[in-house]
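[job 4471] stage=fold_predict status=RUNNING
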Amino acid sequence: MKSLRTRSSPLSGLVTAMIGWNGGVVLVALLVGWSDAPWPLFAMASVTALVQVAVLWPLLYLRLRLDGRAGARGALAGAITGALAFSPWAVAVAALREAWPAWLAAACVAGASVGGFLAYFFEDDTRLASLGLPTDAGRDAHWLEPFVFGAAVFAAVCLPRSVDAATYTVVVGAVAGVVAAALSHYTPDAWKASPGRALGLCAAGAVAGALGALLLRHQCVTLAAAPGAGAITVALTLLRGRVLAAEPDRVAGSRHGA
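[job 4471] inference complete, writing structure tokens
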């Protein structure tokens, strides 16, 4: 779908918010020992994402100046709107109300992450367009792939033994994919071609996987496999980045990679 290949499109913005909020809410729930089904969490997170995007969109795209600091402004606006949008759930839901400081902090972090990414994507796509480069080509067009890598690898390697466990495992894996995307995006392509540095990045992925095992400790999954799943997710992401970088028709100005 072409609109998903452009990171600053409305649909991509909504997908970004859905990933950020559902991932953040589920991770915090697992951290504080949530043992119920994940579906109420998804409902609360998805509604919050919709509300926040509806509020942030005019702020980010009409108000924020694109002078290299849009990401910081977006993060601040995201933290405020995220806290306000999620507060009704923290007050109305008893299970959340019991640990409301943790949930409020999580809302600020999730909201800031969503706001920061939306602003950054818009700013970077605007930069590419100003250079006469397309915003739906190159590695930028594959920004969702690491999330899929993480979700698939964790589901295949950690062997969840119930529907709920599988759901939580996929979410944790997708968040590990976020880590893999960051490791790939913010490191030079030369690192991907260096076995030693690539192994170091995979080791960082293993740490993320170990943290995922901590979150999944109350689920019926193979926890010992989680560090390996994190390392494999990073390895796949780096390999995909190398393949995309080697293609001759890729856009040189495109920075965000799979």
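[job 4471] summary: The chain has two domains: 2-132, 139-246.
[job 4471] exit 0
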